[in-house]
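Board notes, transcribed. Complex of a protein with zinc ion.
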Amino acid sequence: MLFGSRFTLFRLYGIAIRLDPSWVLLAILITWTLAVGFFPASHPELATVTYWLMGAVAAIGLFGSIILHEMAHAVVARRDGLEIDGITLFIFGGVAEMKAEPASPKKEFRMAIAGPIASVGVAVVCYLVALAGGLIGAGAPFTGVFAYLALINTILAVFNMVPAFPLDGGRVLRAALWAWKGSLRRATRITANIGGGFGIALIVLGLLNVLAGNFIGGIWWFLIGLFVRFAAQMSYQQVLVHKGLEGVPVKQLMNPRPIAVSPDTTLADLVEDYVYRYHFKLFPVVRDDKLVGCVRLGDIKQVSRDRWSTTKIADIMQECSPESTVSPDSNAVDLLQRMQPPKEGRVLVTRDDRLEGIISRQDLFAYLAVKSDLEAEEDGRPLAPSRGWDRLRSGEDATR
Ligand SMILES: [Zn+2]
């Protein structure tokens, strides 16, 4: 949901390393600020082209550093049995995408701490390389780049250890609170609130920097602050969604009386009586209580309008793809995961060719909203502000 058209660069130990196009902007920004600011200041009297080369090499080094940091998270998570979707590099760094939340505080702690430890390790190695380079008389560009990488990896480790969820430090704190209080939900709420506060602090810091004339740096902190705030809210909601749907079977949330069409209906009637009336993009085709196919808006558009009254649904319907069907006994959490990002707005609930119901993301979120309304936290606080659910739900209709 965070990323648009990212693409896979390569795989490392079976983990996909993906690049979001926004990362290119970060690379350019890093190269540029290093070439015109950092390196000329730390190593005067080098040629301009050398500064640019150093900047480009350092940006590649940063790229590698972030991959190592995220790989450390991913490898530890996978060893603890957590499925990792892959690592994505984007404008604010990198993120190891987990398919679920860690199963225990201990696993969360190990996974979270692994990244900063890796960054400290890389910082130490780079520092030693710069030191050794100086001793054997390697050129200033060489030692300069490694000294920068030692510095930036230290900054990466320190920044990530701020106890603001979803930063690594916030995860470490969450693991501690979780172990102490026994509630993942509460631990997440507390640390996500700190995350939100930290986001605001960064936004303010950014604005102060802009006012002081440091425009690029200020905008940068401002944007990172916005991102941390957004990520904190999203992560908390993700936990709520997970906890809320855990152990709930699809059949409990589905609409048990789906609108189905007959294969003998003409396209003209389909459009008039069903498409315009219900605005769905997919209709199950049922004959004698059996699901015989699916008809989509796209299939209708393939047929020219003057043939709509003579063409029957049976002529254009297609087999329902595995993505558009689900078993009534399967888990609602798994279904939601499958629908993210939504490929099909509505999924048919089927058992042995029989259509038992239909379910949409809308149904899942409506259930969650009602549930969180009824079941406030022990301390009387609502689980989430209702506008939070609205935001999660908004835009879903477009894919129905
Ligand atoms: Zn990390």
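The pocket of zinc ion is lined by residues 69, 73, 115, 160, 168 (CB under 6 Å). The radius of gyration is 26 Å.
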